[in-house]
Amino acid sequence: MELKLTGKNIIVTGGSQGLGKEIAKYCLIEGASVAICARNKSALDKVYDELLAYKQHHETLSVFVADVSDQEEVNAFVEYAISRTQSLNVLINNAGIHGSKNTIDDSEFDLQGWIEAVRVNLFGTLNMCRAAIPYLKKNSFGKIINLSGGGATSPMPGMSAYAASKAALVRFTETIAMELREFNIDVNAIAPGAMNTRLLEDVLINGKGKVTADYYEKALKQKESGGTPLSKAAELCVYLASDESNGVTGKLISAVWDDWSHLHEHLTELDSDVYTLRRIVPDDMGMYF
Q: Which of 239, 226, 154 is closest to 190 using CA atoms?
């Protein structure tokens, strides 16, 4: 059976646990060489041993300690990854944090936590793109996949830092997709679904009394239900990283709700506002006033 990512060299940020680890695993299974980064060396050492079991043939698996919010560390990571494989084909920006969990008028509002969420979720993606794009341009071809989330498409009371940074990430994705179209570099964002990862645990452990009661109750129900399988988003990453999806660009795609496996069959229709963030006016809702 032909592997979908044979010969691809892929970078995954935040790859030491949760969704990042799952994405790296699926890319390895499909024949790619993968380089992952995270801030915790011991977690990287552990996940390296776990992921080795999925490596195919002569492909490489590399790990590197880096904070995506630090441009110098990012540059060093990208240079290291390319030294191992000689080229870069796909960048998957998965690293992310919740940041502060307060309503903005809370007397204990965590401004530094709010800023840190933007630094990691938005500036971290910017830093990685700035480091990787010159190498993708050399190939006149490439893929960038940015992990967004529910914060981009609906309000998250008590989690404004996360929601605002993820919404900004989608518009950033749409914008650089236009900038890079002439270089055959596809750029898309993914909404992975409500997953039971460390971010959910963060809300349950640290968010009680800080996020709104409704949001906390929703998180509890998600925990009990099991949440969306990590495999959903990992499979979508494989599709968007593969040649099959060539030409699909500038979109926010739901791993759970969209029939994404056939998007490449509808490139003409996709040259529109479908799967994008746009302002809704009364006419769109059948309202006339």
A: 239
Domain of residue 48: give its range: 9-252
- Does a structural domain hold residue 66? yes
CA 130 – CA 81 distance, rounded (Å): 15
**Residues designated as active site:** 162
- CATH number of the domain residue 157 falls in: 3.40.50.720
Chain position carrying tokens 């996709």: 270
Q: Show the tokens assigned to 262.
A: 């056939």
User: What per-residue confidence (pLDDT) applies to 197?
Assistant: 66
Hey, what are 12's tokens? 């995954």
Give mean pLDDT, residues 71-82: 98
pTM attached to this predicted model: 0.92
- Does residue 277 lie in a domain region? no
Closest by Cα among 26, 9, 17 to 47: 17
Tally of structural domains, the chain: 1
Domain membership flag for residue 274: no
| Distance (Å) of CA 76 to CA 30, 32, 49, 229 | 26, 21, 23, 33
| Residue 242, CA distances (Å) to 2, 98, 103, 193 in order | 12, 30, 41, 21
Asked whether residue 4 is domain-assigned, the answer is: no
pLDDT tens-digit readout, 204-233: 777 777 776 777 777 777 677 767 889 999
Instruction: State the amino acid at position 255 in one-letter form.
Output: A
Which residues, 6+ apart, have CB-to-CB distance to 182 below 8 Å? none
Residue 282: count other Cβ atoms within 10 Å of its Cβ: 9
